[in-house]
């Protein structure tokens, strides 16, 4: 996700910097993307070397192979000094796939046509909207003392204005209803 954000920043800065500088930034992003793809392939290889790894983690291996492929696609796009929508879309797809792998049921075992026992959900939500669910054992929460301020901003309107605005919106609602 950090790489995608850096890609967005590079794209936003593009009009303000020289083309050579932008190309250099894009190449650096491509290198990082390539390393992430290689690391993903190493994870796949390590899973496969586990006893019954291919049989028990077939779904995960296939998913991670797909992630690596998308990462290499993003690397190719970034190598062309393109930090725009195609690169960001490819990076987002890799993130979505990684989040799918994170949602595999750890208690479901593995193997068979349905490793992990998952896949029965009916959500239409993007995987990105699901991020953050679960337990982060290294989490450090702090109360920053920020309070809700809804409805308290801006100056108070005089009563005659509030009455007029209420009447205006009431008439609008009645006109809509007809």
Task: Please give a handful of descriptors for the protein shown.
178 residues, 62% helix, mainly alpha
Task: Annotate the secondary structure layout.
Blueprint lengths: L1 H12 L5 H31 L3 H4 L1 H22 L5 H18 L24 H4 L28 H19 L1
Helix pairs in contact: 1-2, 1-5, 2-4, 4-5
Describe this structure in words.
It is a single chain. With 178 residues, the protein is an all-alpha fold. The chain has a domain of 114 residues. It has seven helices and no strands. It is elongated. The two termini are 49 Å apart. About 17% of the residues have low confidence.
The overall strand count is: 0
Distance between the termini: 49 Å
Query: What portion of residues is helical?
Result: 55-70%
Q: From the alpha carbons, calculate the radius of gyration and give it in angstroms.
A: 25 Å
**Major sheet summary line:** none
Order of SSEs, N→C? HHHHHHH
Number of helices: 7
- The backbone outline, from C-alpha atoms, is elongated
- Percentage beta strand: under 5%
Given helix and strand content, the structural type is: mainly alpha
**What are the low-pLDDT stretches, counting only 5+ consecutive residues below 50?**
106-136
Task: Calculate the mean pLDDT score and round it.
Answer: 77
């Amino acid at each position: 996700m950090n790489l995608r954000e850096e890609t967005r920043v590079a794209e936003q800065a593009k009009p303000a910097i020289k083309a050579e500088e932008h190309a250099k930034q894009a190449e650096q992003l491509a290198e990082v993307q390539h390393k992430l793809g290689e690391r993903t392939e190493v994870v796949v290889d390590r899973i496969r070397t586990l006893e019954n790894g291919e049989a028990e983690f077939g779904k995960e291996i296939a998913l991670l192979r797909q992630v690596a492929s998308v990462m290499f696609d993003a690397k190719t796009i970034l190598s062309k000094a393109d930090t725009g929508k195609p690169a960001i879309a490819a990076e987002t797809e890799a993130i979505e796939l990684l989040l799918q792998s994170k949602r595999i049921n750890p208690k479901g075992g593995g193997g068979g046509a349905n490793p992990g026992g998952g896949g029965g959900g009916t959500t239409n939500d993007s995987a990105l909207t699901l991020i953050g669910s679960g337990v982060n054992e290294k989490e450090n929460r702090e109360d920053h003392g920020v309070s809700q301020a809804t409805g308290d901003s801006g100056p108070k309107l005089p009563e005659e204005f509030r009455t007029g605005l209420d009447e205006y919106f009431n008439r609008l609602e009645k006109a809509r209803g007809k």
